[in-house]
Write a sequence for this structure.
């Protein structure tokens, strides 16, 4: 099996502009940010949520709390994860009751990650609203889940992979479409 | 299927994220500092869950954990049972006093019968050292040793280390004083095996018959373990004091009266002042208040006994999650650490050697290192 890079979907400045736009859209849609909070899904949802929060500080100096969520314990495919899943800490330093929460992730694909994240959130309390913000929506949903805030929608085939590379984790900053091909 | 030794090692360094590569948890002695750190790190998310109002997960829904306690236990059994239920698993319970062992069934027959009920994991305690290792060689499900004779009590060692690491922020280079009946203590052994890998120095203190010279050799080569028979001297400079229960039921005759023990070895507030001012006091429980420890010390600000209990559930949730949640085909057999390996346990050379042995042993059924 060979991994071939097919196209670059976003450059570093494009990622930056997209996150700025998403920050504005979230603030606009929330109508009163008193109860607004962002929850980044590990791993790449976390730096994305932090950057959106930073962009919000640039909009009227809004200070929106950011939490992180590890969904490993809520996955529905643990028995297929070989050999052992590695857990990381969730860190949500505020109560979620009555909050207007925005889940942040890099790529929306089958929707199973978001299903798991919602289970994790509801173990912590009862938020008044949960919405979803993703950098890329690549289709192929297996759950009745949609994002309210989308950086870019991309048509993909199931063999393709979207790789979001962020400087905080990957030491580079771009979004690429790669394909797995038989040799 | 087992990957070859160099592959496994290369993979681990490559990913930088460590995983636990054994099927069972039988002892802490064969684990490296990195593996122990990984197990402690994996307990952190479960510590958080203890603070939630809703503590129940569905992660192990549909799995069954068999709890076989061939020796009496209250807190460890409840702790493992609670850990299993908070992960959504069911439990089956076997207790010594009501079991068919009383009717003369052999250990192996008993565990084979339990295994035939198809649990996904076996947690067992037994009065014989090596019992968990023996059972693990004969079963194809993960076995967690919840205490075997005077050998090891690995989950207790881990929860003690987690408690110490939380309070001291590191396990490196601490002075650990262990008080009491060390010769009969599997808790002391598991603690020494774990903490010595982080450069901790040990002072063992108690009546001479409970602190035999051989104990100085149980750590890895070069481990700093000394015996001191005066408690004030033993506590000097201590960062952590591990007080052991005086296990009268293990002795056939009292060679030392309770009054003498209290006079010479009881940890009281005055003696505690010989240790560092921020020294921690740990006790694996159950405590004999007024014998090995005074109530004011047991309930004082330096005491960690209740944190130990809470952390015990987190550690055991992590172990059950790790050993039963994923597809475990690629893990290797767990050495029980009863056969000392020629090179230093925990060294890279020893690890490679063990993996190589596992590889060479193939499917040979009776080999202690045979892959399953």
């Amino acid at each position: 099996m060979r991994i071939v890079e097919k196209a670059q979907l976003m450059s570093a400045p494009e990622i930056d502009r997209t996150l700025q736009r998403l920050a504005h859209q979230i603030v606009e849609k929330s109508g009163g940010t008193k109860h607004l909070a962002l929850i980044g899904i590990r791993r790449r949802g976390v730096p994305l949520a932090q950057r959106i929060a930073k962009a919000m500080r640039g909009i009227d100096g809004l200070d929106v709390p950011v939490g992180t969520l590890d969904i490993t314990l809520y996955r529905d495919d643990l028995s297929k994860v070989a050999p052992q899943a590695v857990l990381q800490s969730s860190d949500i330093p505020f109560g979620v009751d009555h909050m207007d929460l925005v889940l942040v992730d890099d790529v929306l694909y089958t929707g199973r990650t978001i299903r798991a994240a919602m289970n994790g959130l509801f173990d912590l309390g009862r938020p008044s609203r949960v919405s979803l913000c993703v950098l890329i929506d690549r289709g192929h949903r297996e759950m009745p889940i949609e994002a309210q805030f989308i950086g870019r929608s991309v048509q993909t085939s199931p063999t393709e992979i979207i790789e979001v590379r962020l400087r905080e984790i990957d030491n580079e900053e771009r979004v690429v479409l790669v394909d797995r091909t038989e040799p | 299927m087992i990957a070859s030794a160099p592959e496994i090692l290369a993979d681990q360094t490559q990913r930088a994220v460590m995983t636990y590569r054994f099927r069972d948890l039988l002892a802490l002695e064969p684990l490296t500092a990195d593996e122990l750190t990984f197990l402690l790190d994996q307990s952190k998310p479960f510590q958080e869950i203890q603070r939630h109002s809703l503590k129940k997960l569905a992660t192990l829904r549909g799995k069954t954990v068999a709890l076989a306690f061939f020796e009496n236990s209250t807190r460890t059994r409840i702790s493992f049972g609670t850990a299993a239920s908070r992960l959504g698993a069911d439990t089956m319970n076997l207790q010594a006093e009501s079991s068919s062992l009383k009717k003369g069934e052999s250990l192996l027959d008993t565990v084979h019968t339990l295994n035939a009920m198809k649990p996904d994991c076996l947690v067992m305690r037994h009065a014989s050292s090596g019992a968990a290792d023996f059972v693990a060689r004969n079963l194809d499900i993960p076995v967690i040793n919840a205490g075997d004779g005077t050998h090891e009590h690995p989950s207790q060692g881990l929860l003690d280390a987690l408690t110490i690491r939380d309070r001291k922020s590191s396990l490196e280079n601490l002075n650990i004083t262990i008080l009491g009946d060390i010769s009969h203590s599997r808790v002391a052994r598991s603690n020494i095996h774990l903490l010595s890998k982080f450069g901790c120095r040990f002072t063992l203190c108690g009546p001479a018959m409970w602190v035999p010279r051989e104990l100085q050799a149980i750590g890895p080569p070069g481990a700093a373990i000394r015996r001191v028979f005066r408690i004030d001297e033993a506590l000097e400079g201590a960062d952590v004091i591990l007080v052991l229960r005086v296990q009268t039921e293990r002795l056939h005759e009292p060679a030392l009266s309770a009054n003498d023990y209290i006079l010479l070895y009881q940890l009281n507030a005055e003696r505690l002042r010989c240790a560092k001012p921020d020294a921690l006091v740990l006790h694996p429980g159950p405590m004999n208040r007024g014998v090995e420890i005074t109530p004011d010390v047991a309930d004082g600000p330096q005491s960690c006994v209740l944190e130990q209990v809470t952390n015990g559930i987190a550690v055991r949730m992590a172990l059950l999650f790790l050993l039963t949640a994923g597809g475990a085909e690629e893990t290797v057999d767990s050495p029980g650490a009863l056969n000392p390996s020629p090179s230093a346990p925990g060294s890279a050379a020893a690890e490679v050697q063990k993996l190589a042995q596992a590889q060479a042993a193939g499917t040979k059924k009776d080999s202690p290192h045979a892959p399953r």
Summary: The beta strands of chain B are 64-69, 90-95, 121-126, 143-148, 175-179, 201-205, 225-228, 240-243, 280-282. Confidence is low (pLDDT under 50) at residues 1-16, 337-372 of chain B. The two ends of chain B are 9 Å apart (CA to CA). The CA atoms of residues 12 and 18 of chain B lie 6 Å apart.
